[in-house]
Here is the input.
Amino acid sequence: MSIAITPLITEEQIRARVVALAAEIAPRLLPGTVVVALLKGAFVFAADLLRELARHNLDLNLDFMVLSSYGNDTRSSGRVLINLDCQKLVENRDVLLLDDILDSGNTLTFAVNHMRFKGAERISTCVLLDKPSRRQTYFQADFVGFTIEDLFVVGYGIDYAERFRELPFIGHLTE
Ligand code: IMP
Ligand code: MG
Here is the structure.
């Protein structure tokens, strides 16, 4: 079986949207907010968004969390595991959670609850891609890059079985 990747969102489209997102988010963030990026998928998005947010003179902190629910499959197992927790930093602080894709909603629901448990003051969420048709748990992100159809995508940090994260654009994967 061969794998094909059809371009869906170009590098230029991503860049323009990230600039606009930063302008949308910046006025709603308090200085000292901790940006928590969910790894691995959000690493490229977080790097680009953070550098755009820097133009808005916010004094931010960055932290990471590694959650998994997928294994090497293309469907969510519904169970979310913490592979690496973020540091204590978030207690009594505002948190902006960043993820690559909002799909079933299980990951971000878990992450928001976890931040609350760790004592975060105010939690907002931002995702690069939203697939509303796939939701299993009600969840609406505060900031969304692109809303897409029910397609399996890769690139710009997003993988299929750990492959294709290095692609600079977002493509639709078919087998
Ligand atoms: P959720 O818990 O189902 O909302 O899953 C969100 C996570 O599933 C994302 O952070 C991705 O890591 C993964 N995911 C969802 N859709 C895709 C996709 O189309 N390609 C690759 N990973 C995906
Ligand atoms: Mg992920």
Remarks:
- The pocket of inosinic acid (ligand 1) is lined by residues 41, 69-70, 76, 99-107, 152-154, 158 (CB under 6 Å).
- The radius of gyration is 15 Å.
- The domain at 11-152 is CATH 3.40.50.2020 (Rossmann fold).
- The CA atoms of residues 91 and 117 lie 9 Å apart.
